[in-house]
Amino acid sequence: MSTSDEKERVEFLQGTLDMLVLRTLLLGPAHGHAIAHAIERNSDDVLQVEQGSLYPALHRLIRRGWIRAEEGTSEHNRRAKFYRLTARGRKQLGIESGKWDKFVGAIARIMRPAGQEADL
Prior knowledge:
The chain is of the alpha+beta class.
């Protein structure tokens, strides 16, 4: 990755990766590499998911009962764990989405107050 690419990437806020994993699994079961790739692709490569962050997040989501893991075969004919959203996970995604919307709105109000042009 070039230096200019590194400047374009954004660090995850705490809890954001969990929400993005849940949202990705809303589309259907996926293995870890596919989850990371989907997040990267859907963010136009602004967000990069490192294995050292992804797998602890997946294990955390399993412990919370929001996803479950099943053994399967990847598109490359290799054994892989596939993660699936549970009913509790679907409900939690709705909660997290609501919190995210409030958070983004609050930051936007601070960064771009009504009636003021950005001084950036």
